[in-house]
Amino acid sequence: MSDFHQNGIITDFHNLTKRSVEALEEELCQFSRRRPMGLILPSLFSELEGPALSAIVDELVKVPYLSEIVIGLDRADREQFLYAREFFSRLPQHTRILWNDGPRLKALDAELGEHGLGALEPGKGRNVWYCAGYMLSSGRSTVVGLHDCDILTYERGLLARLMYPVAHPNFNYSFCKGYYPRIAEGKLNGRVSRLLVTPLLRALKTVCGPLPYLDYLDSFRYPLSGEFAMRSEVLEGIRIPADWGLEIGVLSELQRNYSLRQLCQVDIADAYDHKHQPVSEDDPNGGLNRMSLDISKALYRKLATQGITFSSEDFRTLKATYYRFALDLIEAYDHDATMNGLSLDRHSEEQAVELFASNLLEAGNLFLDNPRERPFIPSWNRVQAAAPDLLTRMHEAVELDNQGKV
Fold this sequence. Notes:
By secondary structure, the chain is α/β, with parallel strands linked by helices. Helix content is 51%, strand content 14%. The chain has a 9-stranded mixed β-sheet, sandwiched between helices. The longest helix has 28 residues, at 312-339. One of its GO terms (molecular function) is transferase activity.
């Protein structure tokens, strides 16, 4: 099928991009008879007005093996939801939109809040969590894929490559993470992964000592990619952050719940570009500023569950160690870019590192100052134990929104 190597932690599939889309889809159609497949698309309404999502829908129209597509729609009023229903109506698959700001789903969210089970803040993680609940309630899919709605270079082969390892009936993978080169318009992209996550993981290994968890995260080529596929039962048992820590949270839960032999990553695209978040130095609630804070908190919380203790002094040491690793990596990235004829703005790279270093300390202070904070959304297993009929009522609410009057 593809060249691969075992990297010591998880199976890593290469060169799947060399196979034709048509060949992959033909096999996936066969696989779907035993393992029906669905897709989750977490979306802001603003993305329906952007350049990427309409082209993504044009590609999904041609996908023959999907049983259902579930769109989580955030920040939409009634007229915008009606527009979204029309926008996605050309999809031939069984398609449903979760109007997260609509009265029916808001009522269910309030009910979950009364049980102490809802997501405490809006965000991508919350959106995905509700979509996962609907997928479980529909029962249409045993393999579920997920990808972002701002991919400017989207082509349907990306989804086929992502789904293949989990959908194959003779494979035993429960989860697959996608990766791809972050190069576009002659520039080296992927700043948060390159300049925050990679040096932070190395710094944590230095400060906290070698840990299997840190080696595991460091084995993913692109841990922050928003593209992954999984067996539907994975959705029932994981606890994820509601915010930008979603991807780190998902990987952390999988390491806790599954054998590493059941996890893999796959090369899904030769080129990948999406909407680039601004750094937002002056806005702690926006852009890469907020993202770096949420990711850092997610890492600290997951390390705490593994028995690692932190103090203010530890976070100051971590900041200094991270800063040194990050500066060394910038030099390596600069050399790599030069050798490959790419551009890299070292000044803006170092500015981003300075912001991330500051946020490591801020995230540490927030972690220490809020010991009673409930950082993760409860698993759907727990929700069903507390409110056994809630998924059924969610399914009914989504059907009414999509087929009835709103």
